[in-house]
């Protein structure tokens, strides 16, 4: 007799468990940044620099590109929740390979395997959260993914810092071995989470989809007017998507090219803005400013804590502030911070630029902090939240394409940045400043406001007859109209003692076939 596990329906608890997948990514980022400046790492790997260090740093991103490619088909086949579970397996293998490495090839192989996991989880966790959230909570749920990444960075950074006092290779083998822990808890918690109700509807499991949606959003009440209105809209959109047909054309037909472009470029700009370069190589930048030893390590760790604090502040306001507004002003603010940190820096041989002491060094540290603050409030969370632009029929594969864009640019920047510190020196920061300004223009011209709208309502924004992006505003009128219509029908039927079955809350649901 099969044992049925209890299911968790509290959306915030669900989000905390699911976003442990994001914590894996954070653990990997700081497991490298805290270790690459230690004597143990430098001695064992013969002071790696330039292209070699770039290959080590970007190996995870390379694996993530592959993971992103397979994430969409895998998620559509077995579901959002189960695809995240399957993604944990290469992380376990990759971590074991990395901990037991003997040479560069083995270290890179382990990081590529872990990248497969990050590629799948980074694309499908936001999809899963967006599909279970109420419209007014969607941003605050998806932002938990970014918070999980940041907590992973902070926790692992100080684990790496502590392990730096262990002599020999045990220092970083121990730190890297700690990456088993969040993966274990993720695999332990996933079976207790519900499947995405929109995925269940997509594959023809309507009654189960209605029940899960009711448990998550209406305390199990299938007669809730809001629930009925949302379900009817889901069914209507599913039928329209089925009429559009399968294949790659659904990513470009009837205005879908606008959504494909928006979903992919927001991830590209998140990387090109340059903040992740600061996150990856923060310890190097601290050394550029003349900080050494424990002072440099603690200064870098404090900046990770600042990252969490300001993302946490935005968690309180993300669904009250427009996505478009945050993107435009965030890019402008990051461009200002990046350009303001420019000083006259001569390079040395180990991907470190020596900053003149005094005011120039203080300026670099100050604007590195400010850059992270602006990034934490804007592009960092909104880049993932903008997964809401995809339709139900394209969401899993579409977010895979978006994550693919993210990881391609992440990989390119990982390879480019260490040699750039040596060859381009301070001009590198000017490049990122110009890219930030270009991003602000791009966001203003091409990105409509999606805050407060149902996932189905977003369809209209990107349709051929949709409004100009700069004429859009946050909030949902269509959902409220649907709720009012349902309430009117319910009032008209008062006095009817018959109890309709669950499927009857969605007229026409039986017409929706599995796709």
UniProtKB/TrEMBL annotation:
All copies of domain Major facilitator superfamily (MFS) profile, residue ranges: 14-451
Keyword Hydrolase recorded: no
Region entry Disordered, spans: 488-515
Top-level taxonomic group: Eukaryota
InterPro entries (alphabetical): MFS_dom, MFS_sugar_transport-like, MFS_Sugar_Transporters, MFS_trans_sf, Sugar/inositol_transpt, Sugar_transporter_CS
Membrane topology term: Multi-pass membrane protein
Keywords: Glycoprotein, Membrane, Transmembrane, Transmembrane helix, Transport
Transmembrane region(s): 12-38, 50-71, 147-168, 174-193, 268-289, 301-318, 325-345, 365-387, 399-422, 428-447
One Pfam entry name: Sugar_tr
Keyword Transmembrane: yes
Coiled coil: none
Compositional bias segments (type: Low complexity): 500-509
Subcellular location, record wording: Membrane
SUPFAM superfamilies: MFS general substrate transporter
A GO-annotated cellular component: membrane
GO MF terms, alphabetically ordered: carbohydrate:proton symporter activity
Family listed: Belongs to the major facilitator superfamily. Sugar transporter (TC 2.A.1.1) family.
The protein's name: General substrate transporter
Organism: Cercophora newfieldiana
């Amino acid at each position: 007799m099969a044992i049925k596990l209890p299911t968790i329906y509290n959306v915030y608890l669900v989000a905390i468990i699911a976003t442990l997948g994001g914590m894996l990514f954070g653990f990997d980022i700081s497991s490298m940044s805290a270790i690459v400046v230690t004597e143990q790492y430098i001695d064992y790997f013969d002071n790696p620099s330039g292209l070699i260090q770039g290959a080590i740093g970007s190996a995870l991103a390379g694996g993530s590109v592959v993971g992103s490619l397979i994430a969409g088909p895998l998620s559509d086949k077995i579901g959002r929740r189960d695809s995240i579970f399957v993604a944990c397996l290469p992380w376990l293998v990759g971590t074991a390979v990395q901990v037991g490495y003997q040479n560069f090839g083995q270290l890179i192989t382990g990081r590529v395997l872990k990248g497969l996991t990050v590629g799948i989880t980074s694309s499908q966790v936001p999809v899963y959260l967006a599909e279970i959230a109420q419209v007014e909570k969607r941003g605050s749920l998806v932002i938990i993914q970014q918070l999980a990444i940041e907590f992973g960075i902070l926790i692992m950074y100080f684990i790496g810092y502590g392990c730096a006092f262990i002599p020999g290779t045990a220092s970083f083998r121990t730190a890297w071995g700690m990456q088993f822990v969040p993966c274990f808890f993720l695999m332990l918690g996933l079976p207790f989470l519900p499947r995405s109700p929109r995925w269940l509807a997509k594959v023809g499991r309507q009654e189960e989809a209605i029940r899960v949606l009711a448990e998550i959003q209406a305390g199990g009440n299938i007669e809730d007017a809001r629930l009925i209105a949302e379900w009817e809209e889901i069914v209507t959109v599913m039928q329209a998507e089925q009429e559009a047909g399968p294949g790659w054309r659904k990513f470009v037909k009837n205005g879908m090219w606008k959504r494909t472009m928006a979903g992919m470029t927001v991830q590209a700009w998140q990387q090109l803005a340059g903040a992740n370069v600061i996150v990856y190589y923060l310890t190097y930048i601290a050394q550029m400013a003349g900080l050494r030893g424990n002072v440099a390590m603690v200064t870098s760790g404090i900046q990770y804590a600042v990252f969490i604090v300001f993302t946490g502040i935005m968690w309180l306001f993300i669904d009250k502030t427009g996505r478009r507004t945050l993107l435009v002003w965030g890019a402008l603010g990051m461009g200002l911070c990046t350009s303001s940190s420019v000083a006259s820096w001569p390079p040395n041989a180990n991907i470190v630029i020596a900053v003149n002491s005094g005011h120039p060094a203080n300026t670099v540290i100050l604007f590195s902090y400010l850059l992270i603050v602006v990034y934490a409030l804007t592009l960092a969370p909104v880049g993932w939240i903008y997964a809401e632009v995809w339709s139900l029929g394209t969401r899993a594969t579409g977010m895979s394409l978006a994550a693919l864009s993210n990881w391609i640019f992440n990989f390119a920047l990982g390879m480019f940045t260490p040699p750039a510190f040596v060859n381009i020196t301070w001009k590198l920061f000017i490049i990122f400043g110009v890219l930030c300004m270009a991003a602000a223009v791009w966001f203003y011209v091409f990105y409509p406001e999606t805050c407060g709208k149902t996932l189905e309502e977003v369809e209209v924004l990107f349709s051929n007859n949709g409004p100009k992006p700069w004429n859009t505003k946050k909030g949902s009128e269509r959902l409220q109209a649907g709720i009012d219509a349902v309430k009117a029908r319910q009032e008209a039927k008062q006095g009817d003692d018959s109890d309709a079955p669950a499927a009857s809350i969605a007229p026409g649901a039986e017409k929706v076939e599995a796709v």
